[in-house]
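Lecture notes, structural biology module. Today: joint structure prediction for complexes of two components.
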Amino acid sequence: MPTVSMTVNGQAVSGEVEDRTLLVQFLRENLRLTGTHVGCDTSQCGACVVHVNGDSMKSCSMLALQAEGAEVTTIEGLASNGELNPMQQAFMDNHGLQCGFCTPGMVMSAMDLVAKNPNPDEATIRENLEGNLCRCTGYHNIVKAVQQAAKTMGG
Amino acid sequence: MYNFNYQRASSLDDAVAKLGAASDGTLLAGGQTLIPTLKQRLASHSDVIDLSGIGDLRGISADGGGVTVGALTRHAEVAASADVPAALAALADGIGDPQVRNCGTLGGSIANADPAADYPAAVLGLGATVNTNLRSIAADDFFTGLFETALNDGEIITSVTFPTPQKAGYAKFPNPASRYAMVGVFAAQMGDGVRVAVTGAGPCVFRVAEMESALAGNWSADAVAGISVSADGLNSDLHGSAEYRAHLVTVMAKRAVAAAG
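The predicted structure, tokenised, for the full assembly:
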């Protein structure tokens, strides 16, 4: 089996994978980083969103071997020293989750949005979360959370 | 997903050689159609040859008469570019969702020629030229049918050259679940005439000559308001009937012209 090497949350990692192994499978099953979720089998739900070289991508729609040499950030890479990242804190403060299954993908997509657009209005936030499905919240508190985080993060 | 042999091409020649040596190989660009299709076992290949390492296939360069977009340029890069026509950037900004736009590529989209994809409308609507490792193909000759193009075996898209329009606009009615175009219309006033291209409605992107001549005389939404296309041969599925799509063509054409200004 081929070996793949990449940097995940700042740490160099490598592992044996099948050619067909998806990035999300490598993260969850090889590295045991199970914060990245699989919510569908059709690339539609966005629960698996991670950052690859700084851009948000669906780790279920990418082979692990495609990420050879890449810098990957998962939800586990956001908190530091036990302190939640401002986006995670804002989801908590605004009740931006109920069951929490979609939350890792939501947070990673929202982080990419705020990095590229530090002061997004409500319509922009809703448009940019189009790739992330939530079956619980009705999205309203998620949008509020992203607005709060954008302010906290200096937008 | 059935297993396959993953290979990374180091150059165009290397990709052609690997493809030729494979019993049933396919090319991987952004993977936003291919990977989901493989996952669903709707396709299987002996070899998947990744083009992403070929650096000179990515990027946007403007020259006198237009702009050339590398085949591996991602939708998000086209959407953010000040060098491409505004209507093309807006079209790219409406493909899929942000994560798809961060991976999906122009070359991958038009090589796949999905009947509901957005890019074919811009390529045909602007009268672009599709450049491959072997030749240049006019947009009018490129899209030949449902998921069918003029590309031959071993032929790889390297870039697309878009002429600069005087005015251009794109309007689509997105499927609310997939964001694919139920119908999308790209209308452009070019130096040598008007072009109107429709995606989503039929098995393959097509032009509407009657709308083009009406707009050549009077560039306004009113000029196309009374022109409808026949429902014969249009797509009919659980999302909408052929008649519904035929109606949408007129509505989207009006909106595309209005968006162009």
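Point to remember: Helices of chain A lie at 23-30, 86-93, 103-116, 122-128, 140-152.
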